[in-house]
Amino acid sequence: MRIWQILRSVLAIVLTAAIAVPGSLRAQMAPTWPQAAKLFAEKCTLCHSGDDAPLGLRLDTLEGALKGSENGPVLVAGKPDESELIRRVRGESEPRMPLTGPPFLSDGEITTLEHWVSAGLPAGGTAAAAAEPPQAPRPGPGGIATFEHVEPIFLKHCAKCHKDNGKMGPPPERLRLDSYANIVAGGERLALLPGNPGLSEIIRRIEGKAQPRMPFDGPPWLKEEDIGLLRQWIVQGARDADGKPAPVPVGREVRFRGRMTGMWSIDNVPFLVDRRTRIDKSPRIGDQVEVRGIIDPSGQVRAYRLRRR
Fold first, then answer.
1. What is the CA 268 to chain-centroid distance, rounded?
2. Strands 278-280 and 253-262
3. What φ, ψ does residue 189 adopt, rounded to 5°?
4. DSSP at 213
């Protein structure tokens, strides 16, 4: 009996102390922008920074976070349940953020953001910007590119649509570009051919040699240095984060449309033709053609049909 009396007394003291804290002091105790900025830098600004942030939502500055995205504000002061950013990190709206999860934000990290919103999004002593998280330095000429170097490009420009429950709902052509395994696996068609960027659908789409050009919400399109890095990565075998080249997808069927630029080349990239290749409508150099083929053990495309479009 005495134990329960002691517990009630302790609880009463705690509640009295909480009530006694002035509202202004409680506001001072709430998280401010620097605490939120630190979380954004660790979890969000890999994608949500710079002029090409998805939907224009920048979380690397307080001004950007308060402005929101093309769809409107993502933070409603005093109302975390009505703030789309909070709903995304909780998993109440899709796609859940960060896009690289799981793991997602911890319960404690989500609580910090909720308390910041509940307190009215205070800036704190200084509206410090969230620094971008450190990324692997890009390999120089002759260096080896791995997935660690190109992953930020896929996450920032491609995975917003090419992910389960992405911007367009199901991933277009069932192609998910949110992880190394999914990129290598491809979708309805092969996305990349290790060692051969010219016949990799990813490169053909981002360079505009195949339609629709990607990213789908462009222009602006990818920067030349980003395209160059993706090409380098594929030329060197589309290596995973540990440096292991992707396996050659022997036997996988491929289909390309483009301009015939030489005897058995499309858009200046050669393919193989033999006596078993079916050739329709007498295609000539300069014609728009379609090539259908199979990946052989050497990693080349062996055409089984070539026709003028």
1. 30
2. unpaired
3. -135, 165
4. -
- The answer to whether the predicted template modeling score (pTM) of the entire model surpasses 0.90 is no
At 179 the three-state DSSP class reads coil
Phi, psi of 301 (to 5 degrees): -90, 120
d(CA 236, CA 234): 5
Whole-angstrom Cα Rg for the chain: 26
pLDDT at 126: 52
Separation CA 184–CA 194 (nearest Å): 9
| Residue 109 neighbours by CB under 8 Å, 6+ apart | 39, 43, 89
Query: Could you tell me which residues are beta bridge partners of residue 306?
Result: 279, 291
Give the alpha-carbon dihedral of 132, 126, 18, 3, to 10 degrees.
40
Question: Which tokens belong to 111?
Answer: 């609580």
DSSP state of 268: T
Q: What is the per-residue DSSP string for 68-82? A: -BTTB-S--TT-GGG
Q: In the chain, which residue ranges form alpha helices assigned H by DSSP?
A: 2-20, 23-29, 33-43, 62-67, 84-90, 107-118, 147-157, 180-185, 201-206, 224-235
CA distances to 196, 251, 296, 304 from 254, rounded to whole Å, are 13, 9, 11, 10
Residue 278 one-letter amino acid: R
d(CA 277, CA 224) in angstroms, rounded, equals 36
Alpha-carbon gap, residue 105 to 111, rounded angstroms? 10
Asked if 145 contacts 234 with a C-beta cutoff of 8 angstroms, the reply is no
Dist CA 293 CA 297 (whole Å): 13
Please identify every stretch of the chain with a pLDDT value under 70, giving residue numbers as ranges: 1-28, 125-136
Cα 14 to Cα 122: distance, rounded to the nearest angstrom:
26
Q: How many helices (H) and strands (E) does the chain have?
A: 10, 6
CA distance 297 to 11: 73
